[in-house]
Structure formats: C-alpha cells, structure tokens
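User: Second chain of the day. Same drill as before.
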Amino acid sequence: MTGWNKLVGHDWAVQLLAGAIANGRVGHAYLITGAEQIGKTTLARTFAQALNCEAPSKERPCNQCRTCRLIASDHHPDVRFLQPQISGRGKHVIKIDQIRLLQQELNLSPYEGRTRVAILKRFDTANTNAANAFLKTLEEPPSKVVLLLTANDADSLLPTIASRCRTVGLRPVSSALIEESLMIRWGIGADEALLLSHLAEGRLGWAVQASQDNTILAERQHQLSLLRNALESQRVRRFSLAGNLARKPESLPALLKTWLSWWHDLTLLAYHKDSFVPALPISNIDQQHQLTQYAHEWNREWIMSGFKQTDLAIWQLERNGNSRLVLENLFLSYPLPHKIH
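Assistant: Same format as last time:
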C-alpha cells in the first residue's frame, strides 16, 4: 500500500479505510476527527486517491498515476476540496452558498473517475444554514459519491450530522515516531527532531511545518519571552502589557496556547518533584532547566492556578470575551515576583 505509507502513526485508520475498499463496504460519509495538523486532510486525500486510483486494486493508491497526482494537487475533476472562507468578522466559516454549489456538482455523474469525492475541511466551522442544507445530502446521498468531513471534535458538529457519518478519530502520534519520521523522511537533525517531536504534541503535520518554517519556533520563543516578562513584572507593568497584547486579538489564541503548554509542563513537574519519575512527558524540553527550578521554588497552588486561569482565558476568548479584560484578569491571577522569589 505505497500511497498509504505517507500516513504516519494512523495504521488502524488506514486498515479500516483500505479494508472498506477491499471488501466493497465503503460508506457514503465519513467524519475524520482529531487535533489540528494531526493528519486528517492527508488521510482524506489518500482515501480519495485509493477510491479512484488507476493501479491494480492491491496497489491502490499508487501515488504515481495521473489520477493520484491530480488528487494530491486538488485538481481532479471528481474530487472536490471545500474549506472555510473568511467571513466579514474575520472568522473562518463554511457558508450555505458553498454547500449549494457542492450539491449541484455532486448530482452529476463522475467525469473520469469511479467515484465523486467531496472533502469538507473543518466542517465544525459550518454555520447553521450550511449545516442544515448539507444534512439533506447526508440523508439522501447521490450514487457514486463519498463525503469526507474533517473536524477537531465530533461534538462540535450538529448531532444529526455526526450520526450520519462513520467516525474515524485520529489519535496523537507518539513523540518517538514523530522524531524518527522527521529524521528519516525529512532529513531533520537529531536535536531539532527531538525538540519538534515534543512540541508537536502528537501532530506530525505541525512538526514538519515547523521544521520547514523557521518563523514558527522564533514566534514561540517570542511568546515565551512575553510570559517571562509578565511573571517578572508588577501589576502596573502587567496592565500595560495586557493593553499592548490586546491590540492584536488575532494573535492571542496562539499566544495563550503556548503559555498553557508551559504551565502544563510546570504543573506536571511540580506535582512529581517528590517522586521518582525518570522521564516525565513534558513538551517544552528546551525549557526544562527553568521549569524544574520553578517547580521546586514555587507554591503548587500558584502553579495550578496559573495553569487553570490560562486555560480559562483561552475559553473566554473563544467566546468573544473582551481581550484586554481577559488578559488583565489573567495577569492578576499570576503570582507576583515578590511572592515567587
């Protein structure tokens, strides 16, 4: 299964989908779930290739034939790739007009392949009208059509949508497998591969992208420097920092997720500092010396509070909380320098 081999760490999902094709039991709709950049879209495209590949059945997908190459580049006439569009408020949304156009295309017979395939990326961003319109297609799917939806979580979709799909939930890939893949497949050096494999938190796609884009790790370092700045500052300076950060609300979710990862590692170290655990699964391994120092110096209650309050801030911003107020409340919850030194 040459074409399936590009999927790392999702063997059970490959066996499920490849087996469905081999046994002639392909469903009309699949919902592929998992974290961002874990491999959902890659799996969907590979499945579309396997459904239409020109090679003998046991060799599909071959990744070499014209059909496989067209699908890989999103140019095959029978494989439609639909993704969210930017709305007026700057959010990514799948709109009803996109769904209606897709439905018209799906009612046509395949142009040159065996099966028409629609890959709907991040269907959890579909607005209510779009989701309800698509429900009709799920209830009465056209013949020779396979629908592949991706989402971070099945619970984020309407229950009527999720219940009409076969769910394929992708799990995080082990850091060891990501590290090995980065070195062998992408030629990444051992030290960088080790760091990226831990920071990826099970997302090979993120690790590969970070290895090819130096700005990703540079931005992370900047985000961590802002956290250190906040922790080393008194309240007045923290409020000033909150005001500056709130001017770019679009950057806050990524910033706070980096901070949350840092606090998670610190919490893990703090609650295991008195027990012998040879290798705690922390993500920020390049920060381990500082984290270990803080874990021994800081009060566990302050550390747990920092973790919980950062998580709460992310939740509040996802629900359109006032950016500056959210950050100010967060900084008020962090321990002050005179308490932690």
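The chain has three domains: 2-169, 173-212, 214-340.

User: Great, on to the next one.
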